[in-house]
Amino acid sequence: MSQAFFSRGRRLADRVAAFTHAWIDCDIYKSPHPLDPGPDGSAILQFCTTQGIPAPSLIIDSGRGIYLKWLFTAVIPGKTASKLVRLNKELVRKFSTWCSDPASVDAARILRVVGSINGKSGRPVRIVRDTGARYDFDQLADAVLPMTRAAL
């Protein structure tokens, strides 16, 4: 399922009309040491607390890894997609110990749908935790990115 809405035709980054969240894909199965987010995502939330990262709104078991999504309080116009990509890239950097995938940050990204079955593992894609957190896009970006809008 696409992570954005498109203005027309094919799913291309320059056709993003709007988006509702930031995301990262953590391929924890690739880790040389066991990574366990916990049955309720508590290890991810603890990591966020110790690293000073805003907690994700959703922690999703993708069937082989985890998706983390930060939901916004409003729909964001596609013209700000470059800022979304910067935000996703910084989240990937901050979650590198969780084997975050740097290729999964583009605005045209697709991720497995909750309720579907991951064909590689045979496991269902499911929400592990909904923290209830919702974020103002600019405030989340200011909290995560190295420089705030004001500092720029």
Task: Give a brief rundown of this model.
Helices cover 21% and strands 23% of the residues.
Write a structural description:
- This protein has 152 residues and is α+β, with helices and mostly antiparallel strands.
- Helices cover 21% and strands 23% of the residues.
- The chain has three helices and five strands, in the order E-E-H-E-E-H-E-H.
- It has helices at 42-51, 81-94, 137-144; strands at 4-6, 16-26, 58-61, 66-77, 126-130.
- The chain has a five-stranded antiparallel sheet with strand order 1-2-4-3-5, with helices on one face.
- Strand 3 and strand 4 (66-77) form a beta hairpin.
- The longest helix has 14 residues, at 81-94.
- It starts with a strand and ends in an 8-residue tail after the last helix.
The overall strand count is 5
Structural class: alpha+beta
Low-pLDDT regions: none
Q: How much of the residues is beta strand, in percent?
A: 15-25%
Number of helices: 3
The description of the largest β-sheet is: 5 strands, antiparallel
Main β-sheet, spatial strand arrangement: 1-2-4-3-5
- Provide mean pLDDT, rounded: 88
- SSE ordering: EEHEEHEH
Whole-angstrom Rg: 15 Å
SSE diagram, text form:
Blueprint: E1 4-6, E2 16-26, H1 42-51, E3 58-61, E4 66-77, H2 81-94, E5 126-130, H3 137-144
Antiparallel strand pairs: 1-2, 2-4, 3-4, 3-5
